[in-house]
Design brief:
With 127 residues, the protein is of the alpha+beta class. It contains four helices and five strands, in the order H-E-H-H-E-E-E-H-E.
Length: 127
């Protein structure tokens, strides 16, 4: 096994720090990209990749990116849900790479909902 370099240790430290922060709720936003079969067929993989690339490029540290299955609105895919700490979730529809980049900058980082891409604000309830 090769010896670890200082850069390797720094990467391990950052990875552990990030995962610990996420477990402790150390994030300000959560973005869920809906990746059901319909979403993937509509381009959700490209949307997810663009989101991940932009987060890395902008060095955004306090955002969780996750996936889910179909949200039940196949005709409006690709979709993503943005949840900022302490605010109602926002479901965005008909996404592409440019739209998810704008959502990241304006809503996730800037705190302002991109209304023209939003389908709904708030959670569904069964009561």
């Amino acid at each position: 096994m090769p010896k670890l370099k200082l850069e390797d240790l720094a990467k391990i430290k950052e990875k552990v720090k990030t995962s610990t922060g996420l477990r402790e709720g150390g994030y300000q936003a959560k973005v869920t990209v809906h990746m059901g079969t319909c979403g993937i067929a509509s381009g959700a993989r490209k949307v997810m990749q663009k989101l991940m690339d932009e987060i890395a490029q902008r060095d955004v540290k306090d955002v969780i990116v996750t996936t889910s299955g179909c949200a039940g609105l196949c005709s409006r895919e690709p979709m993503a849900t943005v949840e900022l700490r302490g605010e109602a979730p926002v479901k965005y529809v008909d996404l592409d790479e440019e739209k998810i980049q704008r959502i990241l900058v304006e809503h996730v980082v800037g705190g302002k909902i991109v209304e023209e891409y939003a389908l709904a604000i708030g959670s569904e309830t069964s009561y």
